[in-house]
Write a structure and sequence with these properties.
- The complex is a heterodimer of chains A (about 280) and B (about 450).
- Chain A contains 7 helices and 11 strands.
- With about 280 residues, chain A is α/β, with parallel strands linked by helices.
- In chain A, the strands form 2 sheets. Chain A has a 7-stranded mixed sheet, sandwiched between helices. A 4-stranded antiparallel sheet of chain A has the order 3-2-5-6, with helices on one face.
- In chain A, β2 and β3 (about 70-85) form a beta hairpin.
- In chain A, α5 (about 200-210) runs parallel beside α6 (about 230-245).
- The longest helix of chain A has 18 residues, at about 230-245.
- The relative contact order of chain A is 0.22.
- Chain B has 2 domains: about 1-200, no CATH class; about 210-458, no CATH class.
- A two-stranded antiparallel sheet of chain B has the order 1-2.
- Chain B is about 80% helix and about 0% strand.
- With about 450 residues, chain B is mainly alpha-helical.
- In chain B, α4 (about 55-105) runs parallel beside α7.
- Chain B has helices at about 5, 10-15, 15-50, 55-105, 110-145, 155-160, 160-190, 205-225, 230-265, 270-280, 280-300, 305-310, 325-360, 365-370, 375-410, 415, 420-440, 440-455, and strands spanning about 145-150, 150.
- The chains are: A alpha/beta (about 280), B mainly alpha (about 450).
- The interface of A and B includes residues 72 and 133 of A.
Amino acid sequence: MSPMPQPPVPPGVTPGPVPTPVPAPVPVPTTGPAPTPTPVPVPTSGPPPTPAPVAPGTRLAARSLVKRFGATVALAGVDLDIAAGESVAVMGPSGSGKSTLLHCLAGILVPDSGAVLLEGQGVHAMNERDRSMLRRQRFGFVFQFGQLLSELPAVENVALAPMLNGASRKEAMALAAQWLGSLGLAGMETRRPGELSGGQAQRVAVARALITGPQVVFADEPTGALDQATGHDVMRVLTSTCRLAGATLVVVTHDAQVAAWCDRRVEVRDGRVVADVRRSA
Amino acid sequence: MNAVLALAPRLRRAGGRDDRLTTALAVASFAVTTALTLSVIGGLLGFIGRQQDPVGAYQEELAGSYVIFAWVAVVLLIVPLLTLGGSAARLGVSRRDARLATLRLLGVTPREVVVLTVLETAWQGLIGAVIGVAGYLALLPVWSRIPFMGEPLSTGELWVGPWVLIGTVLVLPVLAAVSGMVSLRRVVVSPLGVARRQTPPGLRAVRAVVAVAAMGSFMVATSVGGLPEAALMVVLVGTLGLGFAAMNLIGPWALGLIGRLQARTARTPAQLLAARRLVDDPRAAWRVVGGLGLAGFVAGALAVVPVLASAGGDAEMVSGDPTSTATFSGDLMRGAMLTLVIAFLVAAAAAGIGQAASVLDRRREYALQVLAGTPVELLDRVRRREVLIPMLLVGVGSAATALIMLSPVFGVAGITDPSGLLLLVGCLVGGCALVMAVTETSRPLLRSVLAETSVRPD
């Protein structure tokens, strides 16, 4: 039984259909680096002999992550520090290992070796049950499509997350309705996923991911099934809501325009981080 | 031979593990349908044989009544059996949708798509029918242990004859193919219409009114004027058939209503999700438990007949045979229980096939829910509630209704000699346990579906 997290985005605070409490970031051009890149040197050959210490203020850290699928090496020693409240885009071509990285960071997959630390706590060493609880209590997820249960109306899809954490139905429904309202979905509460547009469904997914007050939100190609304009709209809602809620955001994408919404861009190739670029504020 | 059709056997082998599993489930359901249908027909033929060729005064006087009761059992069981066969045919077709869509994109004509599907479904029907015939043969020694008219129907009396067996093996694939074609037609007409992702129109209360009105008018019509003896059987069987049709009209509507009530009062995620499922597709729930409704009612009503007979003194139904009344009432009860048991077997197969289809249809939703931290046990709980609640309402509820309605008639006698009631309770508990056990077969399927989706690099 966890305490009910309060909605970081109370209804009525942000007028208009979409909350834009912070100025929306200016999308950077798809070609070339971000406006003022701050390259971070990354070791590209093998894990260091002793794991680098985790810097203060780091929420999620990966140390020497290795993951194999049969003969395929999906992750070949990844080190990554993600600060609290930061938004990070993980980019890379198909087969680069970016989704595996997300799955390891989120406690969906267990790395063959290496460590994943959430606030210093070893996620990689937890059993399946604890990782499952971690995912529903401290993480939030936005997938490409199809994560909403088709029988449930939008508001119940969102309310399911706090209910799974022990909230009463009444509390959960009230909170879910607030969240839908603050994400510009007032009046859509009783619609079912099949009756929502792709963009609306992704907003419901954002509400479901954030309603539990997660420390980290993982988004796996969240705009992959949307047209470009709707995709930008969803990214604006996702990044601004995470920022307002103080949640760290990790987005896996192959789309540079999507990545441009994030504070930082990490490129993965052949299971290694080959570039790590911060956009200066 | 057409090049596309020449591909049929290859396509059949090319499917993955899920494809093999759904094929196995479809074949198993066809087999259950065949074995039980043949058994029911065998029983009917056995009683007809005793009527035509009676041995002793008891059979001479009462065999005709037994034929009527056998017909009643056939009426009660044939609709659930056909529904099960139809579900099996649909399961196979819905699994092939994606592949058929790809074939269409590759330029295969709609006609060829239909023929491919028909071939596959007919093939499954054929294998199921053959296994079902073997199952019927294996069940013969079981049925021939149950005493009727003082002695069990022998395997010879229950034997339907080679022509019925050959006919079954030939007809079932055709029925399966037609059923598959009908559900495929919906795919061909509107590929998007198959996925039910919108709020379905509620089943209207008009159904209940129509059903009750039909029943009432029939009862009035039959009570006016005396009917000739020969028409009695037609009237009795007809009434039952109409009752069954009425229940099939009201059943899904009532289940949907209960689902809405439960959705309103649900407090846990499992309660909420199971209730929403029922609201979403009450017909699917009814397809599983519908057969239990009348069978449960009849079994409930007849469970106390032996008590009434023994309480009614020593009136002899057949002169010179003091045990005739007890034999007759005992047979009535046994027949009702047997019908209930068969109805439970059909329900178990339908529940198994329905839950497997449900897991496969929702594989992506489920996998992503579990990735987001939803415990797998929640999905298990939802599945159990989804099957258990309609079954208790319809199966146990109808038996209980019958008992309550008859309680003024049997009074304390039911308590002084509870053997019939105990048998009824035993059948209900055993039947429910069987249905739940068969439903658990989709537990490993769920696990394998979840494992495949999450461990996929990039």
